[in-house]
Specification:
heterodimer, A: alpha+beta, five-stranded mixed beta sheet, two-stranded antiparallel ribbon, 7 strands, elongated, B: five-stranded antiparallel beta sheet, 17 helices, 19 strands, globular
Amino acid sequence: MNFTLQVWRQANADAPGGFAAYMVEGVSSDMSFLETLDLLNEGLSAEGEEPVAFDHDCREGICGSCGVMIDGRPHGGRLGTATCQLHMRSFEDGQTIVVEPWRAAAFPVIRDLVVDRSAFDSIIAAGGYITVSTGSAPEANLTPVPKQVADLAFDAAACIGCGACVAACPNGAAQLFTAAKASHLNLLPQGQAERHLRTVAMVEQMEELFGSCTNHGECERACPKSISLDFIAMLNRDYVGAKLSRRPRVHAGGDD
Amino acid sequence: MSAELAAKVPPGPLEDKWDQHKFDLHLVSPNNKRKLKVIVVGTGLAGAAASATLGELGYQVEAFTYHDSPRRAHSIAAQGGINAAKNYRGDGDSIFRLFYDTIKGGDFRSREANVYRLAQVSVDIIDQCTAQGVPFAREYGGLLDNRSFGGTQVARTFYARGQTGQQLLLGAYQALMRQVAAGTVTLHTRSEMLDLVVKDGQAAGIVTRDLVSGAVRSHSAHAVVLATGGYSNVYFLSTNAKASNATAIWRAHRRGALLANPAFTQIHPTCIPQAGEHQSKLTLMSESLRNDGRIWVPARAGDDRPPADIPDPERDYYLERGYPAFGNLVPRDVASRAAKRMVDQGRGVGPLHNGVYLDFADAIGRLGEEVITERYSNLFEMYQRITDEDPYRSPMRIYPAPHYTMGGLWVDYDLMTTIPGLYAIGEANFSDHGANRLGASALMQGLADGYFILPYTIGDYLAARLKEQPVPSSDPAFAVLEEEVGRRTSAYLEARGTRTVDWFHRRLGRIMWDYCGMSRDRAGLEKAMAEIPGLHAEFRSDLAVGGGDEELNQALERAGRVDDYFELAMLMCRDALDREESCGAHFREEHQTQDGEAARDDEHFSYVAAWGYAEGSDPVMTPEPLSFESVHPAARSYK
């Protein structure tokens, strides 16, 4: 198969970017999209040109490193599929494919298709954890977790942190990411002690760094792990609950 | 045993060694910990767990990763599960049995005391991770579920669908980020360690390259911990993530840390066979699939009928036939070699005849499609995406691929390398898996080292350095290495040749796969050692790396890693050649039993081979003899 790739090239965060067109020939239908970029880069490198920079690592759809806009859709728009799991058999021979980095204010471009997603780490640092220092954990089977609860928590925990939800959102909001991360912990009995604190801290950090959610729902469709919008509803409920519960109801004696 | 290889295994009965040792280790009082600084390189299971725990204890931690976030580390891709001797099933498991299975699985080439300690702390790992919110699989009663894995006859593997590594890593990553927020851990992302600084015989810090700006920087500390994973990517095609590399451990080796058992590399039996020349990596299908899948090939060589048209009597379920006691659940090395034998006999399946079948038809018939979906849906989906074939309807095709490296930096019982103050944890060290690792044991070891072992043992070293300041990074010892890193980088850019980094890497990988892969012999190893230096010289003179130094340059990053692979590959071949026996994953054609099994030679090779680096001359091997007090090194049989 042969393709024309229109690729976003940008030298660094401050440089202006633009599209460059490349012909890539001799592509096998079994190749992944990233292997097609490899092939392009092998050609560029051999000619002494600078290869296209793109983040990638496991190439199995689990590390969340890869992720580009393909023809305007995060990860190419196939349901439940990360860029590395996209194979060329899903494209038409001779097609022109437009490849861009995530477009979101919170994810500045570093170079070509590589963006800075450290804003996600800030949300986790704000409260996306259960406080349990090493060695202080109780025996695991002391706390039964109903299977359906564990399964639902898992569905949320499957998030790979790729950023497609943000890239898909017209507002550049990180609601689906934050909802997945918070709901995973908020659903489990182990996460109850910090539920309110966690929810407020994560949501407020998110609001500081990302746009606001106005329920477009584009994120769910773009998510390579098909994480459900229901978790956003759960996060919103948790946030309201947390805000209400944090109103002092009884004034404790002594120091406050 | 030479003095430099003192393993420092504590005296006393096997069961008491670790407890006694923990009591004997010097402590650092809570208010003093904040005066001590530790560098941790790598943020996978071992590194993130260690950084988080050291931060919780109050040390100043500097954590480094070449990824954009600690959560990307390759531990994330581990699928099947994590072992622990909880004996929740009441099926006869115990700490001693987990210890025994692991040491037997490693073909009696690991250190008894380390393996026993691993089995001991395994139970704490499950408690810790569950408390962090890791969503392990549960039964309807709400308690934790288990499954069985290769090389064992009990069900002791805890799992989170087929994404156990992801969930465990996220737990460790979240604990790490909590410490980042608390200010005990400083995180350096997109930073690659390119050298180790040793001053007055002690680890003093590291030199890194900022992968975005290209800036070379020095970082000093009281101690350095390498948690940088394994080196399977020396083969180019492996199940490892593309960026996984040996550079951190190799450069530490060049500075004096001995490297142990480099030839012990695990070739995982259940991976998707290569589809063509374009392939950039191989994809693992979790070994857990062998719980329900039956492995077979056509009984007759050259039988090209579709699998459904081959009636049962004309199929060879060769593992069930050859190893009735363990059947499809034999350990990885045994399963891999058996698959290779089938393909070598011309009975391979698929368009390139480079695989064997893993068939779920019986399991679907017995349990129903729903149960199989529940257990393996993500794996089936992954398989279908890659091959465009439906494993619910026709059997999967699988073939072995490089997956894990048991070899690594030599460490003593405290996980310290031969350089004082330099520690190696997780896959980066050699310590627990001997010549073959059992399934679901890598996650166990990474977390054992990171959460429960290193944080104790490193305190003993740090306690003695309370009055010392770290060597300042303005010290000439750092400047010299910064310059060296700069020279290396310039050399890659200035070669201005015609071949890309990947071109060389693929060729090196091919040599290693052909001659130092699943089976080795003297002639092949010698051939590899004759070919590698020539290719390495060509790499230096004919390399094409576009772009510059002061920018994000991924080809430049790869060039440094491949440069190190050339040297490592030579050492792997030398180690494989030196070890005139077959054990575990190291199979020498010259040393096999009549029925083609590994013939171990305890009389001459019951040792860990620890290699030293010598610029421009042959490496020198120091053996660490292995003694077995609690188990008898029997011939390993799974029949």
